[in-house]
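pinned: reference chain
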Amino acid sequence: MCRHCLGQILGSDHNLLVAEICTRLKKIVSFEKGNSRWDLEKFYTQQQRVQHTLEEKLGAIGCDSGNVDVQWNNINECVLDNLSDLVGKFEKCARKPWVTQDMISKMDESRKWKNVNTEESRKNYRRLRNELKGDTDNSKKEYLQNIPNKSMEFQRTGRYELMYMKTKDLGWKETQRVPTYWHRRPPWE
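pinned: its structure tokens
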């Protein structure tokens, strides 16, 4: 809402302008490089082996020193070394794991033809775009059919942690975004 005020306040012939402004703060999400996680799927498959080696190593340490901090550091080192040797860290997977290297090369080639304004380049771009769309749709469909099978297999064997991890990969709990048209007028007015 914008309006002007009549009258001379400053001894000028200009009209003063009064406006109401609605602002909205934007949340900036920063991705932190935190500690990488242990590979729980590998841990659960080798649980007996990890437990056996931990018992052996912790039994070998002993409690000779009377200092609690030294004992804790020894135990902590033993557990971390054992987990890093047998289990390892969780490797970050691709955001879209169904995308193959062949698809990426087709994307690069279609980008080359996109901005060239000839009839042949348009035909090549359309051909590559159609091939790429078919390939991605088929591979995504196949990938999404395999994930529920794996999670059902984990459920049958009683590994509920791994089942929840696989269903989380589907992205069912993605956050809802605020509509972009709110900058014009808030919905509560």
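why pinned: Strands lie at 2-5, 16-19. The two ends are 13 Å apart (CA to CA).
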